[in-house]
Specification:
With about 200 residues, the chain is of the alpha/beta class. The chain has a single domain (about 1-199), classed as P-loop containing nucleotide triphosphate hydrolases (Rossmann fold, 3-Layer(aba) Sandwich). The protein has six helices and eight strands. An eight-stranded mixed sheet has the order 3-2-4-5-1-6-7-8, with helices on both faces. The chain is globular.
Length: about 200
């Protein structure tokens, strides 16, 4: 089964995207396979609203484990299966908490095991910066020539994000960008089409 990793900084909307993309594909109960930093696995099942309440938060690093859900991508009379993987946010500096450092190490390990990488960036960060953060630039430099790599420019639903999307397009290859709203499911059709092309 093809692994699809969602990666990016903390609070860019990775977990929101995972939950809402599963919902977009018709999932009613979210069955998450959770890999603890120590290595053992657990299965947790959530109603979608419950998943949102428990797994999404305003504070950074709510996600401290690799958690994945198996999804079916409909194509004609068949379905293609993927494993959509949510991960701990990556930061530029070495984090002070060992738990977060271990979670980020898990994410980095998963980067090189996944066939498809959905690199999520927060469009609202371009209100204050006109360049990518160091970690985003490093991910882009490392993976932008791979066919299974796409940047998801999230939070398109917020005010003035079209202007920030233009800023982003001036920094990187426009063909690699899908503008989305993880909350309103905007751009999900394009994400599904990209996945189908690469599984």
């Amino acid at each position: 089964m093809v692994s699809v990793l969602i990666v990016g900084q903390p609070n860019v909307g990775k977990t929101s995207f995972a939950i809402n993309f599963a919902n977009y594909l018709g999932v009613e109960k979210l069955k998450l396979l959770v890999r603890q930093p120590a290595g053992f696995l657990a299965i947790r099942t959530y109603q979608l609203e419950e998943a949102y309440e428990e797994l999404v938060a305003v504070e950074p690093h709510k996600t401290t484990k690799i958690q994945s859900v198996q999804l079916k991508l409909p194509i004609g009379k068949k379905d293609k299966k993927v494993r959509l993987i949510d991960s701990c946010g990556l930061v530029d500096e070495i984090h002070s908490k060992q738990k977060i450092r271990r979670a980020m190490a898990q994410t980095l390990d998963q980067l090189f095991q996944s066939q498809i990488i959905l690199h999520m960036v927060d469009l609202s960060q371009f209100n204050y910066f006109s360049q990518l953060k160091k970690i985003d630039q490093a991910l882009y430099n490392l993976f932008h020539q791979q066919s299974g790599y796409k940047i998801l420019a999230n939070k398109l639903d917020l005010d003035r994000q079209e202007r920030n999307l233009i800023k982003l397009k001036n920094l990187i290859d426009q063909k690699l960008i899908i503008a989305i709203s993880a909350l309103s499911q905007q751009g999900f059709t394009e994400v599904k089409a990209f996945l189908l092309e690469n599984v």
